[in-house]
Amino acid sequence: xxxxxxxxxxxxxxxxxxxxxxxxxxxxxxxxxxxxxxxxxxxxxxxxxxxxxxxxxxxxxxxxxxxxxxxxxxxxxxxxxxxxxxxxxxxxxxxxxxxxxxxxxxxxxxxxxxxxxxxxxxxxxxxxxxxxxxxxxxxxxxxxxxxxxxxxxxxxxxxxxxxxxxxxxxxxxxxxxxxxxxxxxxxxxxxxxxxxxxxxxxxxxxxxxxxxxxxxxxxxxxxxxxxxxxxxxxxxxxxxxxxxxxxxxxxxxxxxxxxxxxxxxxxxxxxxxxxxxxxxxxxxxxxxxxxxxxxxxxxxxxxxxxxxxxxxxxxxxxxxxx
Length: 322
Prior knowledge:
One of its GO terms (cellular component) is cytoplasm. Residues 2-219 form the NAD-dependent epimerase/dehydratase domain. It comes from Mucilaginibacter pedocola. This is Nucleoside-diphosphate sugar epimerase. α3 packs parallel to α4 (141-158). The chain is 43% helix and 16% strand. The protein is an alpha/beta fold and 322 residues long. It has a domain at 2-173 and 203-229 and 291-307: Rossmann fold, CATH 3.40.50.720. The mean pLDDT is 87. The strands form 3 sheets. The chain has a 7-stranded parallel β-sheet, sandwiched between helices. Strands 7-9-11 form a 3-stranded mixed β-sheet.
């Protein structure tokens, strides 16, 4: 049996669908309050849904009955400052529980991390799997939680766990809707006026799922892989999305000091409204930074060729304009 944790999320749902389309019957975890994603509704006979939170070791133990492979896609993502410490604790502790159970039972795992947990390269160099985040210099709670969750997996590997770690860049795809990375498209559609000088990696959600399955089915173990389709300047991707949606492209450069004002204003407004800020300090500063990722390791390992980001952009725009 194959178990997918976090199957109600964007990546987890796409991964579950890909597994089903390959002829598998799978088990997926969900919280009691979660709803089944639209893309998985057509496959009720192919999915055994179980209620299991990563922080509930007993529920996890039951979910792992007769399981031989685990795809761990579950994680708490939040920009709220108040959520930082509980998010780190939840993501790390939950991963630790799962790692311990998989180690005890000889279950193979593919763990989903993020490039947020990968360090920086020297100017002009590509970021590779050999770069590591320095937690003493990091303020982003999500990045810290993903790094420390990876450390739990590496601890498990040292104790005999058969596992591989993937670090996707920004995952995009039609099923995201207007949440997560879908907010980028929705923001441009509503009329984004500013762009920044930064660069970041983007990857199609189906490509991430396919890479994870290929790694699971390989004999590779104790490795981490950056999963990245293409590196794109923010201005370029925003302009492409705008052209695709038939709206004006952002034309004004937002300089770093402007982004500094933006996150401070958003934080103040968030405190007044008791809502998550539209932009936080980490994302505001990252928007002006060039981070380019090397995908040669995963391409060589499984012979994979990534889907052009422009094709995914068109698919997302088609869904948004319907």
